Amino acid sequence: MLQRSRLPQLAEKHSEAFAAILCSGLLLLGWIALQFGWIGLALLILPAAYVAGGYESAREGLTTLFKEKELDVDLLMIVAALGAAGLGLWRQEYYLIIDGAVLILIFAISGALEDYAMQRTDRSIRSLMSLTSDTAQVLRLGREVSVPIDQLELGDQIVVKPGEIIPTDGLILEGFSTLNQAAITGESIPVEKTIGDEVFAGTLNGNGALKLKVHQPPESSLLRRVIRLVEQAQTETPPSQQFIERFEHGYARVIVGAGILLAVLPPFLLHWSWETTIYRALIFLVVASPCALMAAIMPTLLSGIANGARQGILFKNGAQLEQIGRVRAIAFDKTGTLTTGQLKVCEVIPVAGFDTAAVLQVATALESSSEHPIGAAIVQAAQKLDWSRATEVQAYPGRGIAGSWRQQLVFVGTADFVKQFVTHLPLELGQCADLLEQDGKTVVWVAQAQQAIGVIAIADHVRPEAARAIAQLKKLGIEQIIMLTGDNQRTAHSIAHAIGVDQVYAELLPEDKLHIIRQLQTQYKTVAMVGDGINDAPALAQASVGIAMGVAGSDVALETADIVLVADRLEKIAAAVKLGRRSHRVVKQNIGFAIGFIVLLIAVNFAGNITLPIGVVGHEGSTVLVILSGLRLLRN
């Protein structure tokens, strides 16, 4: 049994449904009273049915009329129902009062169904919020203390036990586990995480205990950003919906004007009786109301946004869901988008008499004192080797680094830099270096005791899914795939050739990327830009649709972009394009169906083959069908 204290909450949450139920009960009692000839009792009960079912619509309609000086659909329905009641009292044909009550009842039921549909979409989106945890177990002075998430500080160490929800984004300090990230990234396969890996709030820990370090404020966590973006998407109205809403107000005026003419002219022009004329005018007000047309867009787009959120694609508003389906060209940033953005040693070539380990040991002895990304890549590659740090290390910015190691001078850097300290560079090694550079790799030379001992090739690795994602986009009919990068021409063209990019612009500054997006828009009209960095923000803002990488993306890129890929999965761009096209297709179907049904009902009304309740059922039924059609987008 429901507790009494909860009844007001339930009534408020489901007010449309309560109104429909109460109206139907009173309508049934009024009809029974009429059947038994209890006219007085019926005339007391039926007005109560009008009030129960039509109060909210009347309030909203009058508010719109007096505050905004506009007519809306709610007021048209109430006027039609009251007109039917007045006509019934005048002619003492009390079934017309029943017709008016049926109109209000079906309108209330339609409102309840619309409310249910919107709540279902809303629940699907906001289910993300249930993933958040209120507290975290923080290590303080060797003890576990429960701390509210909002009070966590940078550097706090958090303990997460097996089976618990990760409370906030963090880096693993200790432990190994398998995490279920499906709710955040859309990836159904659990992911293994170990020391140094980043974990996300809202993901489910597996069988291993973890110790995490808070590396960013809780409000900046991936899940919190997801929730903010979803909330923003729900409050913004896309251009197509704005057009329909503006259309509604003008359309309502036209319908009222036409209704007045239809209530006055037919007796003179068509020799109808006044009763028939007013009755047909009332039916016209009902069937011509644009309820279905108003419901043709937003439920569809919100369902599409919910579907995207489940797949790890966050649309900031419905306008971008519409736009992504129209994209004809897509420009990609290279570093951090098509590539991982992390330099790695991909090849080590020693000279005769030395091996790979020896070359890496010498290079690591020097680079362990460097903060350059190339140095970090070399140290990472040598982590399983025994090495010691060089002394008297001196860096030569843009050229190389030198020092003393095991009582010998050692050097790492460009060919020109190393030439200054060795007698000659081996010809075969130089040829290998040239081939590696032609392949888009960065080559550093390693020398010891006035002798070149090898070269190390370093590259930013292409994302494994990049080529597949681009192939999917081409299969969808995207006309041009473009790569924009500040990197050199050779590296850019090497990567572009490997993954199937059509056009390459290299050695670009941020403003250059912006100008190129503008040029592409003059040619292809609707252009998307995919990026992750601060330098991509101007181009993301200029593009018809800006798409940011959710994990690798900078805060500026995430704020500027229109769509966020939660797990940085490039293949989700093709899924977003498909979802956008599908949304656009369903919206067009809904609008066509709504207009066609309005025209049909108007025609049948003037043929005299429709009653007020049938007109109401047809009108409200078409509205419900349009809403249910939009909810199809909740399915993958």
TrEMBL record:
The chain crosses the membrane at residues 17-50, 71-90, 96-117, 251-272, 278-302, 591-608. InterPro entries: ATPase_P-typ_cyto_dom_N, ATPase_P-typ_P_site, ATPase_P-typ_TM_dom_sf, ATPase_P-typ_transduc_dom_A_sf, ATPase_P-type_domA, Cation_Transport_ATPase, HAD-like_sf, HAD_sf. It is a multi-pass membrane protein. It is found in: Cell membrane. It comes from the Bacteria. One of its GO terms (molecular function) is metal ion binding. Pfam families: E1-E2_ATPase, Hydrolase. Belongs to the cation transport ATPase (P-type) (TC 3.A.3) family. Type IB subfamily. This is Heavy metal translocating P-type ATPase. It comes from Myxacorys almedinensis A.
